[in-house]
Amino acid sequence: MVKYGLDYTRCRWILPLLLGIGVIFGIIALAGRGWLESQTLPYVQQASLWQNCRRPDQGGEWSCESLMGYAWGRAAAATYLVGFLLLVICFALAIIAFAIDTLRFNFIRGIGGLLFVAAVFSVMGLVIYPVKFSSEIAMTGINMFSWAYGFGWTTAIMEICLGFFFCCLPNYEDQILGNVKPTYFYSSP
Q1: How far is CA 189 from CA 45, 59, 113, 182, 184, in A?
Q2: What's the whole-number mean pLDDT along residues 92-112?
């Protein structure tokens, strides 16, 4: 990307595309029912960020309780949701930043800083949830934190990595805009 510059049409939209993928992963984590699941048969427990569901036996009905009745449940949901909303704002700002013909590199660095703030909120929610869930709610059988929880961590890791990339990109402003003369290491005899 640095070799061809951000005006190279195929490379210009890589960062907003990666932010968009992070938004999709965040939606999957928010909507997914696989934050905690039973690991072995009979499957008796399944939890999301919003509720915990149990069933007494293999053919029984699921009974669900909201996690919003717990202070830690509200805190985990609120902090992860704030991190997700900041990610959506960064996605919109990145589209605006890369759609403008003249790039504003300080604007891009600001997006990186906002991504770090989003990562802090996401990680707080992802740490509060398992610590308080496993200590406050009685679990039966062998349980594991599952696929939707993994999507939440993937979103947080993408926020951190893209934050570094957005913050470091302005350091290569001259190379990106093509203002540097090429250096040849060939000397004639």
Answers
A1: 77, 85, 50, 21, 15
A2: 80
